[in-house]
Amino acid sequence: MNEIEQIMQAALRLQPADSLRLATPPVTAESVFGGASTLTKWQISAAEAPLSIVESPIFQLVTLLMAVTYVVVVYSNLNDIRSLFLQTSVTKQLRRRTFDIPHGGDYAQFLNTALLLGIVFIGIPALAYFTLFFPQAGLSAEELLPVIFLLPAMLLPVCGGEWLLLKIVGIATLTQNFITNLIFIKRTFFALSVVVVPPTLLLFALCPDQGGAVWAWITAVEVVLILLLFLQRTLLLFISEKLSIFHWFLYLCIVEIFPISILGLIFVR
User: What is the spatial distance between Cα 151 and Cα 123, in angstroms, rounded to a whole number?
Assistant: First the structure.
């Protein structure tokens, strides 16, 4: 009996587990890392997240450089741009089937400047549209930035190859005047796109991710309208030379669609 009483008294003197648990002080960041430490998980996640292409300083710098260059080119060639709009107006296209090619050197220089400007800055819309429509790719800015410089380097040989192919066809078929008009149409409508598209394109490129979808669609509509005008003008040119629509379709497939499709396939891969 004495032994049982001693065991019960010893058990009563023991503290319950809950009281021991409550007496234990909670573990905090201050007690482990010091008084100046705090838990900031969201900052760690933000530091580990890859930098978006729109937030890249290099991309923003190139985009702003394009904006400044565009303003300078437009301001320096106002008369040539007025002539460009007259050449590509819908009313003139419906009334006449051929272009009046200006013989002044200033207008030709303006077309060359617009061609160079469009090729040099083609990487900006390519990257902006890629990040908008393929966000699941998850590529960082460091992986996408080389496209700004590689795409123009790839497009220059394509444009040169198209020009050389058309010249060879003109010499072989004794249709140099027709080929000259065709090349002039290509350059004219490319210059029109360089003049019309950049304002909305720059607004789209400088918007945060998924924030410039409206400007992206407006830019796409502008490009499609200019493309339709280009197709109409080239078709009228082929008809004026008494060439069949099959030859026009063959020209579009070989000279216009095939090189660009190869370039696009290389870019996507």
Answer: 6
